Amino acid sequence: MKREEITPPFFTVSPKSYLVGNELLELAMLTDQYAKEHHSSIFFVAPAAELVNVVQNTEHVIVTAQTADAKGLGRGMGRTPLESLKANGVQATFLNHMENQLTIKELSLAITRAKELGIITIVCADTPEESRAVALMDPDIILCEPDHLVGTGTLSDEAYIADTIAAVREVNPDILIMEGAGITCGADVRRLLRLGAQGTGISSTLALSENKNELLADLMHALK
């Protein structure tokens, strides 16, 4: 998959490791139904052990790994090779999330190898300075979110959003920009899009919600 095939405003559904097995698959299939109805690109993010099941039971979401490794085939016990993702129909991967950060060398190699394999890269960055540095590596998408706000329900302020967008645009205007952290409802999505983001997403709030269908409907409506 290529960057040009992503349709903004795009959205990522990432239940992290709050859901596994049937619960995770149910959310993936629900998200897939909404993705079928939307022009926007919808990513569904799952742990490595769940990815094949999600690929086999969805048609419209962009199935996405939580992280990946560019070490290649062969030695590398416990890693998630990009080649394995490609062979099993996974189309995208997150990289450098605050809960699984990479060295500069690891990140650069992963972005380069993913590009060779046609796997979309979504790279997390904490600050405007880090966003600028990541942009030099030319990932497909940069997710700008302050580490200290992840999972708190507190949104990034307007100055942070403006500064991170400007930092990426100064380096590479072709990179797609997500703004995240603290998304809880459709109003949050509309705010970020209004401030210039091309995409955003939700994780623990949706995974822990008692009415996932209602919340997803609100989020997807906001994309329109």
From TrEMBL:
SUPFAM superfamilies: Triosephosphate isomerase (TIM). It comes from Enterococcus gilvus ATCC BAA-350. Gene3D superfamilies: Aldolase class I. Coiled coil: none annotated. Keywords: Isomerase. This is Triose-phosphate isomerase. InterPro entries: Aldolase_TIM (IPR013785), TIM_sf (IPR035990), Triosephosphate_isomerase (IPR000652). One of its GO terms (molecular function) is triose-phosphate isomerase activity.
